[in-house]
């Protein structure tokens, strides 16, 4: 029994260590999301205009129709010239001699428009600040596959932390009378708030 308890405690403290920074981040952004309407934001808009070289335009052959990814030559040029990284799998809207690409990202957004005849490109980026960036991380908004996996793994670690904590509470409950009333409060308070005030 003692050996199993030691293993349980080890799982509990390891999961708590893994969750520590993530829980602090998600708790902080829970507050900022809850009060988003009163937190001032000052979006910074950056607009760039460029002429895409003729050889890059020539590489767009044939010109796609509808939703389709950007050719590698254009993606590489955007990265080198404007430091715009268009992730693979992000489709542009092709039609009427124009390419339009929406580039969503945490904490802001961006878009570009390219005239396929004369090669004139307009790029606009909006940055809403680090609070918005952290809020979007919390929601997993436009964060990509790696962050999505992190959120899932983090959620599993939090669940493990909670379950091992519950088992440890069960073990210590006989000597700590306030254990189950405290656990019950953690259930009853949000339940009452939902029933009485959330409509």
Derived from helix and strand composition plus strand pairing, the structural class reads alpha+beta
What characteristic shape results from the CA principal axes?
A: elongated
Uncertain runs with pLDDT below 50, 5 residues or more? Answer: none
Strand arrangement, major sheet: 1-6-5-4-3-2
Radius of gyration: 25 Å
Please give the count of helices. Answer: 6
The profile of the biggest β sheet is: 6 strands, antiparallel
Number of strands: 6
Spell the H/E element sequence: HEHEHEEEEHHH
Nearest-integer average pLDDT = 91
Ends distance: 47 Å
How many structural domains does the protein architecture include? Answer: 2
Q: Hey, roughly how much beta strand do the residues contain?
A: 15-25%
Helix content: 40-55%
Fold and architecture overview:
With 199 residues, the chain is α+β, with helices and mostly antiparallel strands. The protein has two domains: 1-27 and 144-178; 44-128, no CATH class. It has helices spanning 2-34, 54-58, 72-82, 130-139, 144-172, 179-197; strands spanning 44-51, 66-69, 91-95, 98-105, 108-115, 120-127. Strand 4 and strand 5 form a beta hairpin. Helix 1 crosses helix 4 and helix 1 (2-34) crosses helix 5 (144-172). The model has no long low-confidence stretch (mean pLDDT 91). Keywords: Membrane, Transmembrane, Transmembrane helix.
């Amino acid at each position: 029994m003692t050996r199993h308890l030691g293993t349980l405690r080890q799982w509990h403290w390891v999961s708590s260590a893994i969750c520590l920074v993530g829980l602090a981040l998600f708790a902080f952004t829970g507050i900022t999301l809850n009060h988003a309407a009163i937190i001032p934001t000052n979006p910074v808009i950056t607009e760039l205009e460029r002429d895409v070289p003729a050889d890059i335009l020539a590489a767009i052959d044939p010109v796609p129709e509808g939703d389709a990814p950007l050719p590698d030559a254009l993606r590489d040029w955007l990265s080198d010239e404007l430091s715009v990284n268009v992730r693979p799998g992000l489709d542009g809207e092709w039609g009427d001699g124009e390419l339009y690409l929406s580039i969503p990202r945490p904490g802001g957004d961006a878009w570009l428009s390219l005239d396929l005849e004369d090669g004139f490109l307009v790029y606009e980026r909006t940055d809403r600040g680090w609070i918005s960036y952290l809020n979007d991380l919390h929601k997993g908004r436009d964060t990509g596959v790696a962050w999505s996996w992190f959120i899932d793994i983090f959620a599993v670690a939090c669940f493990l932390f909670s379950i091992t904590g519950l088992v440890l509470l069960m073990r210590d409950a006989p000597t700590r009378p306030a254990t189950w009333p405290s656990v019950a409060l953690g259930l009853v308070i949000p339940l009452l708030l939902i029933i009485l005030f959330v409509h």
